[in-house]
């Protein structure tokens, strides 16, 4: 269920801000999914697979660094979350959206800095 939530959150942020893999999915898999960095990157790429990341995901998969169940659940969440995020973004003013994105990046940066 946590992987589906990661997918929905990444899809929502993708729809809102045009972000996903490196900014949302990888840190979430590290922190919530308790994956190592290689598995988190490989799983993120696999969830974004067609056509994004297909060759990179294949390389990680060949080395055993893709959790296919997690990747498929994240992809399902991305499908729904991107629609929700786009729907929300279109209700915000440009200033609200820009400030929300900036606040999100600050929170992620601070958390990653202190957890490193």
List the helices and strands and how they pair.
Layout: H1 2-17, H2 21-31, H3 37-47, H4 54-62, H5 68-89, H6 94-115
Helix pairs in contact: 1-2, 1-5, 2-3, 3-4, 3-5
Describe this structure in words.
The protein is mainly α. The protein has one domain (2-115). Helix content is 78%, strand content 0%. The chain has six helices and no strands. The chain has helices spanning 2-17, 21-31, 37-47, 54-62, 68-89, 94-115. Helix 1 (2-17) runs antiparallel to helix 2, helix 1 packs parallel to helix 5 (68-89) and helix 3 packs across helix 5 (68-89). The model has no long low-confidence stretch (mean pLDDT 87).
H/E element order: HHHHHH
Approximate strand percentage: under 5%
Q: Low-confidence parts, pLDDT < 50 over ≥5 residues?
A: none
What is the oligomeric state here?
A: single chain
Helix content: over 70%
Largest sheet: none
Ends: how far apart? 26 Å
User: What value does the Rg take, in angstroms?
Assistant: 14 Å
| Number of E-state strands | 0
**Number of domains as seen in the coordinates:** 1
Give a brief description.
The chain has helices spanning 2-17, 21-31, 37-47, 54-62, 68-89, 94-115. It has 116 residues and is mostly helical.
